[in-house]
Write a structure and sequence with these properties.
Layout lengths: L25 H60 L2 H23 L3 H21 L2 E4 L11 E6 L7 E8 L1 E4 L2 E4 L1 E7 L1
Helix pairs in contact: 2-3
Amino acid sequence: MPESRRPRRPRPDEKPRPETETGESPAELSQAEDVESEIAQPVEDELERARAEAAEYRDHLQRLQAEFENYRKRVLREQTRAVDFATEPLMSRLLQVLDEFELALVAAEQRPDFDKFLHGVEIVYAKLLDILRAEGLERIEANGQPFDPTEHEALFQVEGGDGEPYVADVLRSGYRLKGRVIRPAGVKVARR
């Protein structure tokens, strides 16, 4: 049978000590509170410093998020603006061609001389081609070439022949812009 602890009896020469509900004397209780206070105060101080530091980090993070969002919006605006105005130099040069076409039409109405009108249109056409070439546009040479579906679009096919397909005639010119096909040549395909 387990032994039960009996309360300690005071010795006859000993003064009785006042006890608390937990069985501790006020001196022991005060000492325990002092120790607890000594331990708790640095912990509370450390906790308060950690909270302040966390609030500072959160504030810094929120500022960084706002700055990044503003940066993203600014870059998007600048890119949109750059795309919107990227064609401005080309449009300025094409306006010159448009002006020359208008002059040719006015001259043809005032003095209908077909040969002069044709010559004027040929000059304007040459100027337009020069502008487009300067921007990186090149015509796809297709006539007589082997049929290439990456550069040619077969609009018609001539029956007969068992050989390799080739371009028999160009019905619509094809173009590359800086090496990339932007419109395949519309062609009539035959076999050799």
